[in-house]
User: Fold these one by one.
Assistant:
Number 1:
Amino acid sequence: MVAQSSKIRTVVVLLAFRLMVGFIVAAWSPFLVLSAHPGKPFAELVPLSVAGAVLIAVGTFGYLWCAWDFASTGLSFSPPLVVESGIYGFVRHPMYFSLVLVLFGESVFFESWRLLGYAWVFWLIVHIFVVIYEEPHMVKRWGSAYPQYSKRVPRWIPRILRPSTE
């Protein structure tokens, strides 16, 4: 009973943390940018609003899906295994990818060059962090399992269909 309670608490803490980070990156920061430099009024956004809303919805769904997969499968901020299930089977860094998708969607939705710049800078910083620190750290942590995973799953552009495991 205690182990189950501890597991549930871990999942809740991990989900809360991931949701807080997602909120800060994809909601609070864009709000601050738009508060200082508003885009076009909502009524003028009809042609691009659908495309932006779709990107935002897909990115939000992806972020929530990967936060759940990470929290329920890894059960740690630093899981003892390479998480390959769920959305992690389509793209290696789904949290970052999903946040970037939301930010690009917001820049399209609000027709905001400033939000587009924020999205590009965020992606560039994340890319540099992933390439220079995170992926080499994962190779050290998990050995040959991570390079094998890297060969099967792309870093940034999700594979729509999983390769067959023959």
Note: DSSP finds five helices and no strands in the chain.
Number 2:
Amino acid sequence: MAKARRPTAMEFGSMPLDPKYAWGRVYEPVEEMLNQLSRLLEEIAKEVYYGKEFTDPELEDRILSRLDELVEQGVLERMPDEEGAMWKRVLGRRKYLRAQRVRIKRMVEYWRDHGGPDI
């Protein structure tokens, strides 16, 4: 029997995953950045599933640190920030982090209903 496809972190929420909506930070290639953040949120969701809690500053640090690592590794390129850009006014840091928490929560709930994160 074929293993069912697990939904991605992006599929667990409708809010933007792009960090320009929180901090005005712009990374390219965009698709790779979104894929990497999606993977990071899945890692964090696994930690939450097994009992770890994250404050907003800790979640923010994990996201920004991973992006910095990816730039250092040459996976992503950081473009000039869009300071004061419309993007941050649309969502902002607090709502962005809340949106990521929604994704994490939905993944954890899905895993609880379907046998864990390693299904």
Note: DSSP finds five helices and two strands in the chain.
Number 3:
Amino acid sequence: MGFGKIITFSHKPVADGDGDFDINIHGHHHNTEHHPEDAITPKHRLVFVDHEYKPINLKKIVEGRD
């Protein structure tokens, strides 16, 4: 739990029915339809990791800010 939210961290999006969470922070998504079960909802936050490997502000992610 963080910032009043239940957060699930995963490689790819977790379906809404696959656990009790408010936000799913994940780092994998395709812009094709070969994974229709990975539908992105407002509960999902896609995090792009750049090659600088610097810290990311979790509060900004939870609040939906860049």
Note: Residues 58-62 form the longest helix (5 residues).
Number 4:
Amino acid sequence: MTELRQWDMAMHRLIMGPSGTVTPKPISDDFYAELDQDFGDFSGHSLVAVHHFEDSWSTWEMHPEGDEIVYLISGNIDFALKLDGKEKILHVDNPGATIVIPKGIWHTARPRQQTSMLFITPGEGTLNAEQPDV
């Protein structure tokens, strides 16, 4: 029988596997490097995480294997997306608002104040760049 318990998202991330099974993973200094090692290059897996931030992201990211779901818990944030070689800004300031960032789209975030968000991210092959060439 499966043990039912709660998880502190400040201390853990949840990994959803290809079959839908969820595995909690404690956060460590090498957390992201461990994902590929522990979960077969993260193939078919999604990362469920809550992040709190007030500073703009230092890089852009792109998820080539699936759409990313982002849910605003609190705060006020602009998401910048690279579409057709141009930057498009999506302002998100309504707690409970959910956006879907399509796979293959470069994006970054610029909070306007302390912000908390839930992310469901298809992590396989995620790319990061200071400024993507699009």
Note: DSSP finds one helix and eleven strands in the chain.
